[in-house]
Each structure stands twice: as C-alpha cells, then as structure tokens.
C-alpha cells in the first residue's frame, strides 16, 4: 500500500500537542463549552458552534495522518482533548470521539479505495467534515449482539441503491459522511459498509433523539429511501463471517479509552460543582460552610478517589503497548461505573440543590447515566471477562 503524499498547503492551527499553550487552549475550550452546555441540554440543539470552534483549531482532524494534513495524534493526545471537551459539554465530546475513532483506523483499511479514504480525510482537515458509523436498527437493536442488518443495498446501473433506517445516529445534524452498515441483495448476501453522503437525495430524519441525557448529540433515526451511491462506495463489504467492517484489537482499545473518557469528564464537572457549592453554602444554624463538615469532606474524598482511579486506568490504558480483546472492555466498565458512582455521591450529599434544574448537577447526573447504554454493556463485559477467566483455568 502506497503512503499518501503530504499536503504542503495544510498548516495546523493548534499549538504543539505537548505544550503549555495547547493545555491552555483546551482549558479555554472547556470553559467556553461549559458556558453554553445548559442551553444545549435544554433545547436539544446540535452544538454546531462548539464543533466549529474545534475545527478552528484543527481539532476535528487530530487523528488524521500527518501526510494528509492532520496531527496523526496518539491515543494519549486524543484522550487529553476528549477529556477537556467532555468536561465542558459531553455531547460535543461524544461526536468528537466518533470522529477520532473513524479517522484513526481509516487509512489503514485496505478495503477502501485509496482515493475515497483520502478524500474523506482531506475534507476533515479542510472543512471539518464529520463522519460516523451507523449500525443500530429498530428491529435488530445493537449489532454487537448478533444478527444481520435489515438495511439493503441493491445493485443499480452505476452503483447501489440503499433502503432502510438506522437508530442512534450520533452527530447526524453535523455529519458529512455516513458509514452505513447494510447487506447486499445478492445470494448469498454480503455485509459491510456503504459510504453515503449526508446530503444524498433520499436521506431524511425519522424519529428525533429525545432522551434523558446527552441531549445535544443529534442521535436521530436516519431513513434511507432509495439512496443512490456510486459502485466504489461499497467500501468494506464481505460475506457474513469474514473479517471486515468493525473494530480490530487496536480500534477496540481506542474506543475503550475515549468513550469512557466522555463520562469521566462529566463526573469531573459534577465534582467541581459539588465542591464549589459545599464551599459557598453556609447554613445559618452552622455558621460555616458545609465543606467544613467531616461528612462532606469524606464525600468529596470518596469522589476524588473514584476519579483518581479513573485517571490512572485511562492513562495506563492509553499508553499500554497491548491490550487484549478481553481487557479493553474492562476499561470502559470500570471508568463508566466509577463515574456514575461519583456523580451519585454528589447528588446524594447535596440533596434538593443537586436535583434542582437551576443547577448543573442534575444535568451531569442525567448525562453520566447514558454511559450504560454504550456497547459493550455491563452484562456483556462481565460475562466475557468471566468466560475468559474460567477458560484460563480449564486450559491449565
């Protein structure tokens, strides 16, 4: 496979990834995004402005290879950015995670036509074009639990005609490209990814995203009514059971770090609100801040212990030379569950103020609970870990 040629016209607009200036930029973006987070939660509007700011500093193309104009960022660098964005506005961070995951592995996928994958990468650099995989369907549910897609790609004169629908299409109002998981109308069928432009005729929104938390992700249902794509857009299509579209071990490791980092960021924002509130709240009968009470000190200590564990796990996983397919899901399980516990502790200790819609803690609580719905879910993680553990003893 030939390496792509570097584009001399592209210059990155962010400071070096390992620099005080880069850290200051991320802190500035955290503050900016936090200021509008309540608005996006209340209205469920898609955070176009946040994503435009990320593109302004070339952060939407962070994991695009350097040769194509990106930063070619490592997992620790991507983690740093996701943490900062999630602490400000987590829906923006989730869209960013999907972008990073896709571009991290795209250029190494030999099934894609070179011209097409380089086009997608260059548009991310030049325009901030977003891409995401669309896999979940109304009848099938999550494909991680097995089954073939109902979305059909039929042969046309010069390409493919796609019909079907996809749920939970994260980022759909802002996506430029849709990597649609479907099956062909051949006998036997092939299964995999067809690349669909978001503005292709026949692509429309079905049921709109209206969830308890992560309300600004724009995870609408997308419906495909006789959508035409050129023949070359069958980018990663194979007979069922053959290796093809999906995450390999390295892709799974990246997902298992970046996805829970979103919810760790939510928990850290919740922690900051709780600490500030306990310092400022001075009941008349106490004559001192709640933060002076041992019970509140212990609560914040428990929260900080959970978040310390998260940081250690995420940093270690991001720098690990190798993580097995059994170990990677445990990172997601550990970090997301500790994030939920941390926010629950803050809610329990703050009482009514914590649940008031006038304060952000109740929003953080709704957002962090969404960690449970992402693949792999807790039952699958634990069953897989248990099966692997027993298998080791059986082999012995």
From TrEMBL:
Describe the location of the Acyl-CoA dehydrogenase/oxidase N-terminal domain by residue ranges: 30-99
Q: Can you tell me which residues the record assigns to a coiled coil?
A: none
Q: Which residues cross the membrane?
A: none
Which InterPro entries does the UniProt record give? Acyl-CoA_DH_C, Acyl-CoA_Oxase/DH_mid-dom, Acyl-CoA_Oxase/DH_mid-dom_sf, AcylCo_DH-like_C, AcylCoA_DH/ox_N, AcylCoA_DH/ox_N_sf, AcylCoA_DH/oxidase_NM_dom_sf, Mito_Isobutyryl-CoADH
Which controlled-vocabulary keywords does the entry list?
A: Flavoprotein, Oxidoreductase
Recorded superkingdom:
Bacteria
Q: Where is the Acyl-CoA dehydrogenase C-terminal domain?
A: 264-375
The answer, when asked if Flavoprotein is one of the entry's keywords, is yes
A Pfam cross-reference name:
Acyl-CoA_dh_N
- In this chain the Acyl-CoA oxidase/dehydrogenase middle domain maps to 137-227
* PANTHER family registered for this protein in UniProt: ISOBUTYRYL-COA DEHYDROGENASE, ISOBUTYRYL-COA DEHYDROGENASE, MITOCHONDRIAL
Q: Report what the protein is called.
A: Alkylation response protein AidB-like acyl-CoA dehydrogenase
Give the species this sequence originates from: Paraburkholderia terricola
């Amino acid at each position: 496979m030939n390496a792509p040629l570097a584009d001399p016209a592209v210059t990155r607009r962010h400071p070096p990834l390992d620099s005080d200036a880069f850290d200051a930029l991320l802190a500035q973006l955290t503050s900016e995004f936090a200021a509008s987070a309540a608005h996006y939660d209340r209205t469920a509007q898609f955070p176009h402005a946040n994503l435009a700011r990320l593109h302004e500093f070339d952060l939407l193309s962070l994991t695009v290879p350097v040769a194509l104009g990106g930063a070619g960022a490592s997992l620790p660098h991507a983690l740093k950015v996701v943490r900062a964005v999630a602490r400000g506005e987590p829906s923006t961070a989730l869209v960013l995670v999907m972008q990073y995951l896709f571009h991290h592995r795209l250029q190494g996928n030999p099934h894609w036509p070179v011209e097409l994958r380089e086009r997608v990468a260059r548009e991310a650099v030049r325009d901030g074009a977003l891409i995401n995989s669309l896999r979940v369907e109304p009848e099938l549910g999550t494909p991680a639990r097995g089954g073939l897609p109902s979305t059909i790609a039929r042969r046309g004169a010069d390409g493919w005609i796609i019909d079907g629908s996809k749920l939970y299409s994260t980022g759909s109002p802002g996506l430029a490209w849709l990597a649609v998981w479907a099956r062909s109308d051949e006998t036997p069928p092939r299964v995999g990814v067809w690349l669909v432009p978001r503005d292709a005729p026949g692509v429309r929104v079905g049921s709109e995203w209206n969830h308890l938390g992560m309300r600004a992700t724009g995870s609408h249902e997308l419906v495909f009514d006789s959508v035409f794509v050129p023949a070359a857009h069958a980018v990663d299509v194979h007979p069922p059971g053959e290796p093809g579209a999906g995450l390999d071990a390295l892709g799974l490791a990246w997902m298992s770090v970046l996805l829970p980092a979103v919810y760790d960021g939510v928990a850290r924002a919740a922690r900051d609100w709780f600490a500030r509130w306990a310092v400022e709240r001075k009941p008349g009968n106490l004559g001192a801040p709640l933060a002076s009470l041992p019970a509140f000190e212990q609560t914040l200590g428990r929260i900080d212990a959970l978040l310390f564990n998260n940081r250690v796990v995420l940093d270690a996983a991001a720098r690990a030379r190798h993580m097995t397919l059994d170990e990677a899901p445990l990172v997601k399980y550990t970090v997301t569950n500790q994030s939920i516990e941390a926010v629950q502790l803050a809610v329990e200790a703050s009482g009514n103020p914590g649940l008031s819609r006038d304060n952000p803690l109740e929003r953080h609580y709704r957002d962090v609970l969404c960690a449970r719905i992402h693949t792999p879910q807790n039952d699958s993680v634990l069953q897989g870990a248990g099966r692997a553990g027993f298998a080791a003893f059986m082999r012995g």
